[in-house]
């Protein structure tokens, strides 16, 4: 674990912001993919690293949903980190809270992928049943 081997990293808000940006990129990639790729093994490592940052460090970073107009930067606080994935946007209150709720992080990072997977599976099952019915008629 890089953060444990270099404990001074957890005192730098820019490192925390970069870690969350990285997680946002992973979640965006997963949300746009055909299959869920954000594995529970990844989320455990992500959560371990995110929770290593104490509140005074995390509190220096403000997160905002990215502008809905592609390519347009949000005006205002230059220290704000724009988040693009639905998962990470949903985690803004958790990331900015005094006490880090690891359970909420775990659920948010893994549950949506599982729901999307289930929906795709149900759609495929329905489609297969419809094809079989057509053939039998």
Explain this structure.
- This protein has 137 residues and is mainly α.
- The protein contains seven helices and two strands; from the N terminus they run ααααββααα.
- The protein is 61% helix and 6% strand.
- The protein has a two-stranded parallel sheet with strand order 1-2.
- Helix 3 (40-50) packs antiparallel against helix 7 (102-136).
- The N and C termini lie far apart (60 Å).
- The model is unreliable at 113-119 (pLDDT under 50).
Helix content: 55-70%
Distance from first to last alpha carbon: 60 Å
Any low-confidence stretches, pLDDT <50, length ≥5? 113-119
- The radius of gyration is 19 Å
The structural class is mainly alpha
Which outline best applies? globular
Q: Please, how many helices?
A: 7
**What's the total count of β strands?**
2
Largest sheet properties: 2 strands, parallel
- Strand neighbour order, sheet with most strands: 1-2
* Mean pLDDT value: 75
Output the helix-strand order: HHHHEEHHH
Strand content of the residues, in percent? 5-15%
